[in-house]
Specification:
- This protein is mainly β.
- The chain has 3 domains: 103 residues, Immunoglobulins (Immunoglobulin-like); 105 residues, Sandwich (Immunoglobulin-like); 98 residues, Sandwich (Immunoglobulin-like).
- Helices cover 5% and strands 53% of the residues.
- It contains 1 helix and 25 strands.
- The strands form 6 sheets. Strands 10, 12, 15, 16 and 17 form a 5-stranded mixed beta sheet that branches. A 4-stranded antiparallel beta sheet has the order 1-3-6-5, with no helix packed on it. The chain has a 4-stranded mixed beta sheet with strand order 2-8-7-4, with no helix packed on it.
- It starts with a helix and ends in a 6-residue tail after the last strand.
Length: 337
């Protein structure tokens, strides 16, 4: 085939190639909506128009959901040259002040696989709360700690607190505020909401809000952010208890540390492993606070998988005995299972 003939074949194929390259193109003329000022808990809904300026159907999909935000996608796919809509709904549950929330929608537009829609405005607290948050840093077994909130209506309206929704380890109570508990910033009735963390709350970060429910028509709920951390009375380091492969042909040794938290020192009075052929040596590093342990595994420990417990004894009435699981793989033993 000469060059002229080849060029004619390519030109003949070009319309087909162009047709195969049809793509959608998402265009959002106004991707940001200013909703002005709302009260906490007031819902905002806005419909964003998405036009398909391409020459192939445009498909929109949800990417992920965010707390207090809901995305509703209209009929999809959107034909070439036509328009569709995306509704973004914000439930108004945000800290008072300037607020910007973003919603993300996926698309098959090769130039923009994710479309971003923005709602912006001001959230106004029509119910006040002081201090407006609760933060604890505590240790399991310590005395329960209470953080109180005073709640009032900014316009002095009469209302009632109906109840409080909180994590199961936070106990709540509600009553009318006494004169000395009232906030000078508010008029009318004021309420006292007490949040008490349980003495045996689970170890880890304290998260989630306490939701104060009211019958106030302008704002049904007040969010009280919760934060902080609960530490254990005792912590064995490393915390996994997985000792790996131990060759006990010449006695294997494992070093651990035991750390005690809390306001009162806790003394380690004894330690043992509930597996035959083992022994434990205690070395105080900081009496009542930190101890070093040496676990010895002799050839009398049976070969194969080991699943046992490190048993600690203390002088604390809160935790007289603490059991810590241990796992290992025993090699070089003279004893078979």
């Amino acid at each position: 085939m000469n060059r002229t003939a080849f060029a004619m074949v390519v030109l003949a194929l070009l319309p087909g190639l162009a047709a195969g390259a049809a793509t959608p193109k998402a265009t959002v003329a106004s991707p940001r909506f200013e909703f002005g000022t709302i009260g906490q808990g007031d819902e905002v809904r806005h419909s964003f128009v998405v036009k398909n300026d391409g020459d192939a159907p445009l498909t929109l999909t949800k990417v992920r959901e965010f707390p207090h935000l809901r995305v509703e996608i209209g009929p999809s796919p959107i034909a070439a040259g036509r328009s569709g809509k995306v509704d973004v709904v914000f439930d108004g549950q945000a800290a008072a002040g300037a607020t910007v929330v973003e919603a993300f929608v996926g698309s098959n537009d090769p130039a923009q696989s994710t479309l971003t829609f923005v709602l912006a405005g001001t959230v106004e607290a029509r119910l006040g709360a002081k201090p407006g948050y609760a933060r604890w840093n505590t240790v399991q077994g310590e005395k329960e700690a209470t953080i109180a909130q005073t709640v009032w209506a900014a316009d002095g309206s009469s209302f009632r607190v109906l109840g409080v929704d909180a994590p199961p380890y936070v106990h709540t109570s509600v009553r009318e505020a006494r004169p000395e508990e009232r906030s000078p910033n508010g008029k009318g009735p004021q309420w006292r909401v007490e949040l008490t963390i349980d003495s045996w709350a689970p170890v880890g970060a304290i998260t989630g809000p306490a939701v104060v429910r009211t019958d106030y028509a302008k704002q049904r709920e007040v969010l009280i952010p919760l934060s902080g951390f609960v530490r254990p009375i005792v912590l064995v380091e490393p915390p996994s208890g997985q000792l790996g492969a131990l060759n006990v042909a010449g006695t294997a040794k494992v070093n651990l540390r035991v750390r005690f938290f809390g306001t009162t020192p806790v003394h380690l009075t004894g330690a043992e492993v509930n597996v035959a052929g083992t022994s434990v040596t205690i070395a105080p590093i900081e009496a009542g606070r930190l101890y070093g342990l040496t676990l010895q595994f002799s050839p009398a420990v049976a070969a194969g998988p080991l699943a046992g417990k490190l048993i600690l004894k203390t002088d604390s009435p809160k935790l007289p005995v603490y059991e810590f699981p241990l796992t290992a793989s025993i090699e070089g033993s003279k004893v078979s299972r």
